[in-house]
Amino acid sequence: AWYQRRVRAASGILSDILSGNDMSEEDKVAMVTPVLERLAGKSTMCDLMNATTTMSVISNINSLISYKYIAKIVPKLAGWLPTNIDNGAAFQNTILGRFLSCSTIRPPSIIPGLTRQVSPYFNRSSVLNQDMTQHSVNQYQQFIDSIQSLTSKFVYHLIKSEAKEETLDWIVKCLDANRNKAKLVASFMAISGASDGFLLNLAAVLLKLCSPFLGPENPKLCSIDIRFCGPSSKSLFPQQTEDKILDKVNGAEIDKEIILSLGNPDNFNFITTCFYLTHRALQLAYTAPFDKYRRLMKSLMETQRLVQDMGGSSFSVDTGVREKFESQFIEQLEVKTHLLHPDTVGYVLLFYCSSAHWLTRISAAEQAVSLSDIHSELTVPQHPSITLAMVPSYFISAMCQFLINVRYFAEISLENFPTGSINYFITFLVQFCNQTWVSNPHTRAEIVEALTIFIPNERSSSSVSTSNRETAFCSNTMARNFLGKALISLFVDIEHTAQFEHKFQYRFHIFELLQYIWPHEHFEVSKLSCEVKGREEDTTVLFTRYIKLLFNDANFLLDEALHNLEEIRKIQLEQENQEEWNALDENTRQTKLKTLADLKRMCTSHNILSYETVNCLCYMTTKCNGISAEDLESVTYAFVTPLLVDTLVTMLNYYLRELVGERQTKYKVKNFEEVKILPE
Question: To 10 degrees, what angle do helices 196-210 and 164-177 make?
């Protein structure tokens, strides 16, 4: 407190001198430089546990560098850049990096197997007292937000001065050094780069710098130049080698000469630079911690079930199990406090909403490099603008993954997002779900999963309503006109482009959307079956190909599920014979138990997927209010054309015989619910 009072007094005197005209700028710089060096040295004291000191240090520096001729000194100070700019973690030990390192998320132990130190933020009482926990979370989130705001002002002052190039260069070098954080494996190898908290703070600071042009209808979005990551761009950002959204038009590779003909500016405006840097920062900041948080929640639930199985009270639970639960709970709180900061989540949603509208508009205007080139109302063209070949594909994948994770871990932020803004998301996702817009089926599958966040989920245990999102989804013109065909097309496309085990997961999300929109008359998915009539023997008809693959999936998944049930029953019968089971050596018993657990896991997965596949066959051929009698007849006819009817009959007869005939006892396991099978 004594130190802070002295610093505040000195800062006040310096501010009076700097605002006066008694000294030249050169003399003022010479006088202030040692003070700045001293304050920069104090940045080593910055951390969240010393939040007051941290905010004081940044505030005092900000009061000095608010004068442009002082701000230009900062990049010349010792410790501005790390010695090794290829080491992502080294940026944490720079002047700006120390401000960005304030977080509740602790880095993992450097030595494998070493027990994590006691949390400085939460303790055992946090597990027991919910009110105390929420108070602590709110307090730390307030500290984080304040430090982010002050750091944002620090960066803003530098950018408004002659230090702009050095400041942007620091951000670019930092993001490039931490490029591996975009990979999921980074959550297991976090020590190879900057900490998760550091990158989350950097992304938050950039988001605050973006605030003047955020909002889907903000006119400043017109200033963003799509050529920033073009093949010969002169921008600071080394992203020209990134995969782009569009790589083919009508099946042909894009002519790079056409892209080059759009020009390559020598300099890009700050809005464009900030927009692209923020997209990159968000991709790096959220990939690893969301994956880490998902695994933490899974482990926590498993330990919680173990605690409940032991009786639940502190007396009946094994000490080791209780300590494990408390440790996991505290670590989950640490990550949640920073990762799911509600204000930051809202900022990211607004940024991505603005980006979605920008991409939707600019992709529909042929060879427009910014929205300022568009002078009329756009309709959806048959093919996207060639300029999408300059936009990194992670713009879409990072946005989709963020929306999906927010749905799981911060759904209230999504539901409270304005309905009009949700419409921009839906329009963008449906438009880019089309094969002509995005050729990569994996990215399109991510888009489909992201679209499921706007409809009710029967399997979700969340108490958060979906009415706001559902209203936006059902009234969206783009979804009504194009989603049905896009889903059927993707179902077909991923057959040969996705890994075998992945295609079923992709199709699971397609089923979620199809089941929801099928009975809605406005979506008119059933009309896709009309093209079958008169072309019954044509294997290239989209709906015919879809049905054929549906039959193939049902056959494979049901067969695998039944095989797993049979194997599970064999091991369970062995266990029932206690004499023979106990006669087995310990290693053999453990191997069989592990095999049993693996079989149950695979069987559960196959049963869930097979249920969704067979369920699709059911509702598509069953009368419902949203489907006219004529359309229903057209759909059912498509399922029983000469090309498909034999396959359907053979499949139904075989599984009826297996499931309700004499052979059904082979599949009678102890607990049907455990493996998600519905015998009724």
Answer: 140
What is the pairing mode between strands 248-249 and 252-253?
A: antiparallel
Q: Are 304 and 324 in contact (CB under 8 A)?
A: no
DSSP annotation string for 122-161: --HHHHH-HHHHHHHHHHHHHHHHHHHHHHHHHHHHHHTT
Classified as helix, coil or strand, 552 is: helix
Token output for 123: 């303790």
Q: How far is CA 336 from CA 3, 183, 293, 628, 654, in A?
A: 33, 20, 8, 48, 50
What are 404's two structure tokens?
Answer: 């999906």
**For residue range 398-426, what is the model confidence (pLDDT) as tens digits?**
999 999 999 999 999 999 999 889 999 99
* CB contact at 8 A, 557 and 508: no
CA 376 to chain centre: 34
Q: What are the distances in angstroms from CA 125 to CA 88, 128, 314, 587?
A: 36, 5, 13, 41
Count Cβ atoms below 10 Å from residue 302 Cβ, excluding itself.
12
CA angle at 21 for the pair 15 and 25, rounded to the nearest 5°: 80
| Strand segments (E) across 141-262 | 248-249, 252-253
Q: ∠ CA 358-363-365 to the nearest 5 degrees?
A: 105
Q: CA–CA separation, 35 vs 17, rounded Å?
A: 13
Sign, CA torsion 445/449/451/455? positive
Q: Give the C-alpha separation, 671 to 676, whole Å.
A: 9
Q: Hey, is 75 helix, strand or coil?
A: helix
Residue 601 tokens, joined: 């896991």
List all residues 6 or more positions away from 598 whose beta carbon is below 8 Å from its beta carbon: none
Closest CA to 132 of 413, 293, 333: 333
Tracing tokens 């599984």 back to the chain, one arrives at 655
Length of the chain: 680
Q: Rounded to whole angstroms, how far apart are CA atoms 309 and 520? A: 44
Q: How far is CA 539 from the centre of its chain?
A: 37
Look at residue 404 and give its three-state secondary structure. Answer: helix
Top pLDDT among 209 and 527 is at 209
* pTM score above 0.85: yes
Question: What does the angle CA 516 – CA 518 – CA 519 come to, to the nearest 5 degrees?
Answer: 90
User: Residue 391: helix, strand or coil by DSSP?
Assistant: coil
**Residue whose C-alpha is closest to residue 622's, from 603, 635, 638:** 635
Helix axes 394-409, 270-309, angle to 10 degrees: 40
The SS3 call for residue 67 is coil
Which of these ranges, 138-142, 523-527, 654-658, has the smallest mean pLDDT?
523-527
**CA 538 remoteness from chain centre:** 40
106 to each of 110, 197, 285, 673, how far by Cα in Å? 12, 8, 15, 40
E strands present in 582-663: none
CB 550 within 8 A of CB 542: no
Q: What is the pLDDT of residues 217-235, one digit of tens each?
A: 899 998 998 888 776 555 5
Residues 6+ apart with CB under 8 A from 28: 17, 18, 67, 69, 70
Look at residue 626 and give its three-state secondary structure.
coil
Token pair of 260 as six digits = 């080059």
Q: Quote the CA–CA distance of 123 and 120 in Å, as a whole number.
A: 8
